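Page 47, continued from p. 46.
Same chain as before, 149 aa.
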Amino acid sequence: MTAIERLWEDFELPIRDALHSADGHSYDVAIDPDAPSGFTVLAPFGLDEMLESDPSWTSSVDGLAAVDLGRKGLLWGGEGSYGSEGFIARLTVDRALIWAIFFMESNPFDRIQLSNNVATFSSTSGAEITVDIDDPRTPISGPVSNRIT
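Result:
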């Protein structure tokens, strides 16, 4: 079991603007309103090393919005322990983590729109993050049309 999977068992994520996948890969991210996806994926980093230096640097997360994907799982968005934090995630049918993105300054995500395999998560502060639900590292090119709530 990877470090992120262990954290997710307690519905916790590291306090860092980052994308984590269940396979143990983590990447720094930055909110970027000028990018079509609303964020930019940056360099990979070692989550194990980060947690070794400060294992308590985590935030409890709670969902505010969900989209049921049937046999393909669930999209979930919500808030962290502090008012400015937000997260988005894709889970399996059993609610195990596939991937999650945590933002320290996005505010909670309370709306999700889905069109095919592209989802847009909207926060209470107006931040919009658009991802390919199968691989959130895949760049989104241009605005998404025909969005379905």
